[in-house]
Fold this sequence. Notes:
Elements: E1 3-7, E2 10-12, E3 18-25, E4 34-39, E5 46-51, E6 57-59, E7 67-72, E8 77-82, E9 91-97, E10 106-110
Parallel strand pairs: 2-10
Antiparallel strand pairs: 1-3, 3-8, 4-5, 4-9, 5-6, 7-8, 9-10
Amino acid sequence: EVQLVESGGGLKQPGGSLRLSCTASGFTFGDSDMNWLRQVPGKRPEWLSAIKKDGGALYATSVKGRFTVSRDNAKNTVYLQMNNLKPEDTAVYFCATDEGFRGQGTQVTVSS
């Protein structure tokens, strides 16, 4: 059974930083490209970043230069380092495989 468990969300002031983690099980993590997305209630999920199995990274324009994706295949974990957070970054963040498996997500709230 594929499982993805996100953690690391919380409440931050604008300009702050957070590092999200997503730990995977039930599939060969090292052979899988992984994605980070976020969703605001009532809106469709927004794709943010992908990290290929070879470590290559892609970013959406909205987060490029502020967010950094990385992975540790030994820990079956993908990370999203988020810097210079803005109120519009408030959302539920989740990781997902290219096949469409996704976790429950972790809430990020950016507010003063």
